[in-house]
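Batch job 17 of 40 flagged for manual review because the log was empty.
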Amino acid sequence: MVSTPTAARLDGSIATAFAALCLGAVAMGISPIFVRFAAAESIGPFASAFWRVALALPILYAWMRYEEAHARAGAPRRAFSGAAVLAGLAFAGDLFFWHLSILGTTVANATFFATTAPLFVVLMVWLGLRQRVTSATSVGLTLCLLGGASLIGQSVDVAPERLRGDLFGIVTAVFFALYFLAVGRARRQAGAARVTFESSVVTAAVLLVVAISMEGDIVPRTPYGLYALLALALISQVLGQGLLAVALGRLPPVFSSLVIFLEAVAAALFGWVILSEALTLIQALGGLLILAGIWVARPRPKARLP
């Protein structure tokens, strides 16, 4: 069996999508830090969730116009498809519960429980969509779950006061799993920029109502609060969610969800460096298990004979 130009292009496409997915996971993994900074400036969790999406909309719109101006003729660009709207609603639920989780437990805990989304993705694909899950995916998921548990295991069993925040993180995972599958479906009908922009419009509309009804005043009052919100919007929403949408147009949602476990690794590292949260040898080994799980479950394009 020999490598062909078609196989080489396929390999390159997967490698590019995988790199985008990894960078997007890291960008999303730092978001708890910005939420904590915003909270320190008296910005509530729902307000920060709203501003994360709302402040990103102008850049996402410009990206959409640029992408579609340079797209090939006939490229799909269906506006506000049902899948894109569902993705926006699911992401609103994700942010609603995740921001509560971030403020109710450690950064590593909140991110780990949120990144158990792959487990729910597999269950939804297997039970809901009746699609086969490969043995490599199952082994990779198991390794990632073990690695994630190693990252936060020590803090969970000695901190029962964090239980509520941890439970919010699990609810977050369910919404994130639904978001993954919805974005994967929406990418069949439109480009990454349109899907990210339109789903963000829906998310922002929902979170605006939530933030005003539950917190009232949502306007940042200090420069540092505004800086935290801008960082949250530019890094976690534009870069993180945008790259995720790019990757989901080329990679299977189940595998892509496994890579999001890198959020737990990134959050633990950022929590250690920036917030001085402890990082032990067991947690480091957990990070290696996550990397091993992603490697085991990676897509394997088949070379074609000429």
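Reviewer: the log was empty due to a logging misconfiguration, but the result itself is present. Residues 1-10 have pLDDT under 50 and may be disordered. Unflagging and moving on to job 18.
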